[in-house]
């Protein structure tokens, strides 16, 4: 099974969001609180795609509202992009984690899970019709471009997906949070902002 078995005939965002609540396209729903579907401007010219919801997102039901979301907010602001005018989602819609004491530790979704969840991303792109999809991190890029992507090599470049989407791969905000020391984090943050800053020039509709 994949998410394709749960995508409804009505492809409006609201119908998709409702149907995604009951998705059983892979096993990740079993240990997650809820489906975290995409959020934002219904006809955004820019779509941002992350990996999967984190601990905070799983509880709140919204994408990028935890620590990675705060870093993303700062980066978008520095790049002159209004978050309110974007649509933000994830390659995988359920939080994958393992217990570590009282904490729930993020686990990377498998390729099978990314592929199983991709029909939701396809449906979101078809509904929103963004001009550019920014894929943050290897998992997002894998799903958005439909093939493995080496983010270090292809970041900031324009890549076409099989569907003809214009995708710009970049790093994931969480990778910046994991940087070893503050100066390293600053360098990585600046590089992330540089990738994002090049995006508005690709947008015609704005
Ligand atoms: N990391 C992600 O990839 N997505 C979120 O929504 C939060 C953290
Ligand atoms: Fe469905 Fe995706 Fe959740 Fe798997 S991760 S159950 S495919 S919404």
Throw out a few tags for this protein.
globular, binds uracil, two-stranded antiparallel ribbon, 206 residues, single chain, alpha/beta, Uracil-DNA Glycosylase, subunit E, 8 strands, binds iron/sulfur cluster, six-stranded mixed β-sheet
Itemize the secondary structure elements and their pairings.
Layout: H1 13-20, E1 39-40, E2 46-50, H2 55-60, H3 67-78, E3 86-90, E4 97-100, E5 103-106, H4 111-128, E6 132-136, H5 138-145, H6 151-154, E7 159-160, E8 166-170, H7 173-177, H8 182-197
Parallel strand pairs: 2-3, 2-6, 6-8
Antiparallel strand pairs: 1-3, 4-5, 7-8
Helix pairs in contact: 4-5
Iron/sulfur cluster binds near residues 113 and 117.
What's the number of helices?
A: 8
Low-confidence stretches: none
Largest sheet: 6 strands, mixed
Radius of gyration: 16 Å
CATH topology, by name, is Uracil-DNA Glycosylase, subunit E
**Through-space gap between termini:** 38 Å
CATH architecture: 3-Layer(aba) Sandwich
Summarize the helix and strand pattern as letters: HEEHHEEEHEHHEEHH
